[in-house]
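Request: Have a read of the protein record below and say how the chain folds.
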Amino acid sequence: MTHDRKLAHYVKRELRKYQAVLAEVKHKTDTAYSVSTQLTGIGSVGTDSSLTDGSDEQTGTFLRGMFIACGNVYIQKAGYHLEIMPDSEEKCAVLHRLITEHGMTINISRRGRTAFLYSKNSENISDILTYMGAMRCAMEIMNIKIIKEVRSNINRSVNCETANIDRTARASAKQLDDIAFIFEKLGRDKLPEELCEIAELRLANPDMSLRDLGKLVQPEISRSGVNHRFERLTKLAAELREKQ
């Protein structure tokens, strides 16, 4: 199941020889798409050693048949989910051994009385699909994961930058207010030279960061040096307000 209509049609085309059917599942906020096959009876295929203990190619072919018969991959906004549900707990255990012995990871769980295999890890799902020979589907899942991660990183970076801008704007507004109050009540001439200089620079550059303001001071000072001077101005403004 997926929320991507194009991907659902792509999977349907890949499984056309298995009579795949595309279904729409409408929710309140969006629409999901499910692809399933019309095959029956394969979930009860035998799992004797001649099928499961062969070469990687034979094992991959067997696993592919089991997946087509009783497996699904769901690609949703919340994440990824691969599931294989054979018709008995014994076959579920055999498939679990088969997959793990070939270097892949999958979990066993229960839904009521029914045992099934599942994975929610995109890398593990891609490994299993690749082993079954579904390389293009595996690559599609990895591409979706990469796109999601890029979008997430961009959103995180934008949110962080926005938060920094908000903090700088609030701090600057407080500094401008303190400076205006000090100049009104005390005057420029009564301020120490270094405090008057940083106050004048802030008035001329209300949106500038502390680091950039420090580069304008003569001689140049560090960000912490600029911050220390503003702390002195804030303390002086508070003292003047108390005397009112």
